[in-house]
Amino acid sequence: MPAKSSPQALNKNLVILHFTVFIWGFTGILGKLITISAVQLVWYRVLIAFVTLFLYFRFSHRGFKVSKATFLKLVFTGALVGGHWILFFLSIKLSTVSVALVCFSSLTLFTAIFEPIINKKKVSGLEILSGFLIILGIFVIFKFEPQYTKGIEAGLACAVCASLFYIINARQVKKYEAPVIAFYELIGAFVWITIFLFATGGFDRHIILGQSDIGYLLMLGTVCTSLAYVAGVSVMRELSAFRVALVTNLEPVYGVVMSFLFFGEMKQMTTGFWVGALIILSTIFLFPVAQRQVEKRRSKS
What are the backbone dihedrals phi and psi of residue 195, each rounded to the nearest 5 degrees, phi first? Predict the structure, then answer.
């Protein structure tokens, strides 16, 4: 668990996290605009991102060496990072930006389940309840949007990967600076995706970029990955993995609004989608209120 921090430090990190989540919400728009496959897209994304971070270390003269054991751990965590992004963009291409982002909200449930197991801490009934309400929202969407089943499944698998590397990073950030963690995890993601592309013949003519793809990928790799990834990891010094996961669930709010502005996706969504989305987003917003009430009761008892 994070050490006790001042309200100012917590508020500062929450502001950084919300700004980061807003940037992440824009990645869905870029993923829809980029024409290459999900795997090829993520390969370019991590390549641009880790090169950007290398240049940052080089010109800022900051050290980024780690032990061999830490290097291997971060590189293997990179497989989760790469898998998460591939599944996310695959979900978008198989459904819509809105569906992919709302399914990603199951991150809260998976974190509520995995974090106590991995960190050997007491299970929070409130966190589990919040997670199941989010799953209920996803079930409602499943029921009314059957044409997006494969996209929903990819979105849920994406959330599992994200949950695991959030929990791992919440521990790593206590030992190393966020840019260092991001750098080696992005290298790991690049290595694993490169191996996968070689094995599946992914380095074909379709990997050649069009002019518009280059601009979108540069924005995705620098602002939406290098900058946002470092910021997202850094706040874990003050915030728990579950708290980060909960705020990250606001990504659908930003993403759905932007998808409407860019693609008019709201016209494609049924009433069932909006009922499910309302359940999910209400849970996200009401969780902090319920948590404060529980803490007040415990302090009085």
Answer: -60, -45
